[in-house]
Amino acid sequence: MSSIELQQPTATGSNKNGDHESQSQMLSPGHKRGATLTGLIIAGWGWLTNLIVYLIEEFNVKSIDATQISNVVNGSINLIPIIGAVLADSFLGSFHVVSISSFFSLLGIIALTLTATLSHLRPQHCGTGSTLCHAPSKLQLAVLYTGIALASIGLGVVRFTLASLGANQFDSPEDQGVFFNWFFFIFYSACVVSSLGIVYVEDSISWGLGFGMCAAFNFLGLVIFFLGNRFYRHDKPQGSPYTSLARVIVAAIRKRNVLVSSESKYYYHEINDGANKAIAATPKRSFRFLNRAALITEGDISSDGSIAKPWNISSVQQVEDLKTLIRILPLWASTVFLATPIVIQTNMTILQALAMDRHLGPNFKIPAGSITVVVLISSAIFIALFDQFLYSTWQSLTGRSLTPLQRIGAGHVFNILSMAISALVESKRLNVAHDNHLQDQQGGAAAVVPMLALWLFPQLIVVGMGEAFHFPGNVSLYYQEFPVSMKSTATSMISIVIGVAFYVSTAVVDLIRNVTGWLPDDINDGRLDNVYWTFVVLGLLNYGYFLLCAKFYKYQNLEQEAEVNTQI
Length: 568
What we know:
Elements: H1 16-48, H2 51-59, H3 63-79, H4 81-92, H5 94-117, H6 138-167, H7 173-204, H8 207-227, H9 241-254, H10 288-291, H11 316-354, E1 356-357, E2 359-360, E3 364-365, H12 373-398, H13 404-435, E4 449-452, H14 457-481, H15 487-515, H16 528-552, H17 557-566
Parallel strand pairs: 1-4
Antiparallel strand pairs: 2-3
């Protein structure tokens, strides 16, 4: 595969003299998209990070119920982006989807702010140790859940649809890859600011003020987004790409008895299968059964050259687009099992922190729920470092850019290393707990072990380094390889991975608890280190599976774009 270094001409056409002008024009909307992302993520993370505490303290929800509500909300937020992707790709375009979802988010956060500021929209506070707690009324729950639902839809849809809109402003895969690096850098940085600043205001000053700040950031991000409208290159939806993919399957089944030909003249070619995309002359030999969908048979084409039976024939490029999705699914599956240990590690690290000394000096104690902010900080820092130093050094030494699959592979390695460090740290913590006879404590909660929670930082830093590789790498891979008509779907794939991993992790933890005694309520009496070692082994197996998939995977759109570039 040749190195992709030349930039394609823009959709509106460009020349050497106009390159600097077009790049300077992109600078302004780039800054506006960054400001928009910052505002919306600070707003979204501000209410989401502290949702469990808000439900318990202000709505008298029991802790387990609050956790279950938070689980559903988090899982839904990571699965919702596919809905926004379908709307953006098929009907509305990315700009309108971001606008609408941002407005939904604003309405939802305003509703949450009202529940925090108006006393009749929340139940009376429970007294300390009181068993006479008033449950929220139906009206109070209706306003609360409406606010959460609207805010969840907005946060879930806007993140990756905004990424797709941003990447659409660039032509070369290399520039798009750089964009995704900085997209995630801003994303993680905004999460850190929100998790520390907004959460502090909510806990220490006022829930109403904290949620009000979230609403203000959301409004500011939306205003900045609209101000940049005239600079954006807008994508034009061309109907549902999913219908075209379904037609390929139906047409192939209907023509299952037709002999496959190797001559281009027997296949149907559309005049325009997408801007700046090379159109395949003859279907490739892989998945040959699907090639029948593009074979022209009697009655398929009208006399004017248009399709007479839409569900009986597809273009060659539509067939190849479906093949690309089929090829990429095994890689996507490996990412699910890459993300699952991260989700489990996040929850278990909080339990470990609760059972460790979290003091920094005599007067400050790290909140257990904030310990995982280290991952966000690590990811943000290393994304910037990798983009500025590692990738450029690699290209100067090898003459090639680091490919998305290579970056994802590096993420696998760091993730496995993080699990191993977690196992070693937990083993040390358990030894300290046993030496001090802190197991089998009454009441279910684990006793605090005389070991600093700072021991948890190395594993969190390493997993952040892994995320700095594989999250931008995955988004870049999907965006570059997916069909042109499915770019929003491409950027939402990583969010779907996280959503699926969230539910898979729940099932895995239940399985471990039912089969082994490693995860009792008191982790000082358990073997959490064995859980981590199990994921080290599973991670190695998944890494081997990934390497096998990557070895046989051939870049599709990247190769086509390279061919176009060499002809310019």
